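Pasting as-is:
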Amino acid sequence: MARTPRIEFEGAVYHVFNQGHDRTDLFATADAAQAFVEGLGEAAGRMRWRIHAFCLTRNRYHLALETPHGNLANGVHWLQSAFGNRFHRFRGGKGRAFRDRYRAILVEPGAVLSDLVDGIHAEPVRAGLVGADQIASFRWSSLRHFARGGPDRRPAWLCADWLPGSGGLPDTEAGWRDAVSRLRRIAADPGSGLSGRFDLLSRGWAHGGEAFLRRCREEAGRLSAAGDWGGSPLSAGNRREWETRLEAGARALERPLSAAAADPKSAPWKVALAAWLKRHTSATNRWLTERLNMGPPDAVSRYVGEAGDGRRPAAREFLSTLAATVGN
């Protein structure tokens, strides 16, 4: 039976989660957990996601994320693939890192999203990794970053739009002290209902008020009737952005795109453009190799990786030019 496509639209908010294949302990080491968090930051930058919360336990991740550009499937595929490659380097293994299919449940912004964020931040307590009094010091949770204070004290890809739904607290150092104290109390209280609400938000396909659910049903019906589940218009919009950035980068390097077919597949200027596009957009390897004539799609990742670790110094120089002229 064919899998149901993801429901994707601009501005959608999801509870995304997955676990290790055959319940493998994905994040049993600090190196593995750090690799996932770094990959999440990269994915947020490339896809322009807004991450409301994340948490890693030994064999599972949970995310509350918003997709302003409707690129959930593309982004999660990239994130899991990138982590899978790094995971195998740590473990020296092969095969899948994750269970076949991640879950992505639509969530209404506001009170429901705030409940989801609370549940994600309380997962280390539910998993027995820390006590409720240590919830803000758990290393692999966004709460640790939020607890430091306002927006200038956390990664730029973490956002706290959900915070007003947690008692109307401000995004300040004092507000976060109150938020952490509140979460400690409810995480320690079996009667708070937090665990039950989080279990509910981990089932089904959408959660929110009746108006939100009606809109989701209408959107699902429209996309199903169209046969593309939002893919065609969203893909067209993303490709226009990729094309605009590619042309701007080529102008900055004073390299006409018409020269791509004649130049070597791994020409430094082409590798630099590919690396720059992958850093700032959700551009796929297939699209990049079609536009820049770089050979098989997996070759793009290889060339970009070699530029990143210093094996292609000429490409690094072109990247520096791009950073200085059109932005890092």
